[in-house]
Amino acid sequence: MQKTLLTKLSIIAGLCIIFAIGLGMIGSVIYERQNYAASVVKEIAQQHVNPQEVITPFIIIPTTITPECQITAPETTSKCAPSYLKNEIIFASQTQAIQNLEVSTDTYKRGIYHATSYDGALTFDQRYTFDQAISSYMTLRAKLVTHKAPSTHPPIKITPRPKKPSSTGMQQN
After folding, report:
1. Which segments of the chain does DSSP mark as H helices, in order?
2. Confidence at residue 128, expressed as pLDDT on a 0 to 100 scale
């Protein structure tokens, strides 16, 4: 009885090992084909359509910032920081995206694999508020003015020129 039980258990264990090996082989084939299918889709996308992402439209206003010159001492030259470019980015305060639901599809094939490309119209309706951009520009300008070193200008002395009499009796300056 024990001999038949041991034989039955060894047969069941052997079948489990054989099934595990078979499942591993089938799993590796499936994994290989999934990777190949993904590479085919990626290759088709790079060659024909390129994947696209929709990012909401925005406005960029290029501005040139010229900081004010700083005078550190009366007898020295002034230090002027160079001008630099800054892009003011204005996002929409309200956005509505409308998509036309008539989508056309193109199918590209490589062997037993295929990739589908979708093409549809997308329209944006947006409202912009420029108050934020203007206030950020004014804040930046205020920071530039308040962060500069206190300027000390040399005193200006004005001396009048002596008046010379002219032949007509009028005086010239």
Report:
1. 2-44, 131-146
2. 76
